[in-house]
Structure formats: structure tokens, C-alpha cells
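Model it.
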Amino acid sequence: MDGMDMSSTSSSSHSMSSSSSMSMTMVFKNTHDTPLFSNAWTPSSSGSFAGTCIFLIILAIIDRCLIAFKATMERHWLATHLNRRYVTVAGKSSEAGNIDSDPDAKLASLITAQGVEESVKVVHNLNRGPIPWRFSVDLPRALLFLCIVGISYLLMLAVMTMNIGYFCSVLGGAFLGELAVGRFIQTNEHGH
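Modeled.
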């Protein structure tokens, strides 16, 4: 029976040690040798740690700038969509064709800078729904979003190292980026 007690004691002590090693203590550390993104990027001096922190500040500023750029482009794409006023009407003969085929036709037609209007109709797009899918808009939008998400995840990984210097650098960069370009990120929620 003594052998049985020893094996159960060692088994329970093993499960206790493995459960305690599995629970990590989440506390900030203030060391200058915390790897960033890979073991190859491990600052070895105070200067290289400062350089890493400066990199994180710049990366966070770039993240905010990309978000502001995307918001600006969204407004541009929407304005371009809303300003599309001439739509070709299927089956409508052009006024220029009517004038050419009928010599008695009156010249009471829409004259544009390019000449007599073709088979178009003037429309005002007041639709507040999503704009139609366009390759020239949606591809750049998706690429911008990909860059923003990639940088955001890199910043998240830097914060997850639990290094106080990296954490403060990301916060400082986000603050400086918002201070510089935050006014461009604001969207008009009322549709004016």
C-alpha cells in the first residue's frame, strides 16, 4: 500500500505543478531585453530598447494615419458615387441621332460641352444605402483595410509582451497619431 500512496502523491504533485505552470501571472515587466515579434528582435542595450520603442511609436502613428486616409477615401468615393448624374438609358434614341435622321427636327435638346446630349438621363442619386460594388473602389478599400489590420495586430502583439515600455510606446504613438490626424477620421453620422 505504501507504493500506491507514493504514486498517488507524486501524481497529485505533478498535476499541481503542471496546473501552476499553466497559469501565467499577467503583470507588466520593466526589462530592456523583451523580444518584439521574434527572438531575433531582442534589444541588447538601452539604446536598442529605445530604438524599438521609437519604432512602436512610429508604427502606431502610421496606423492612425492609415485609418484617417481610409476615412478620407471613403468620403471621396461616396462623393464620386453621388455625383454620377448621367446614366445611359437603354432603348432611348439619342437627340443627335434624331437630328441626323429628321432634317425638320428642332434644336431644342440638351447641349453639353461635348455637343448634343446622347442617350442619357439626368438623375440625382440620393440613395443612402451602400454604394454599388466597384473594382476601382473596393480593391483599394480592401488593401487599405488589410494594411490597417496587419499593423493593428502587430501593435497588439507588442502590447501582449507585457513590457511597460512597449505598452507606453503604443499608447504614445496612438495619442500622437490621433492628435495629428484625428479630425480626418471623424465621420458625418447624420448624413448631411
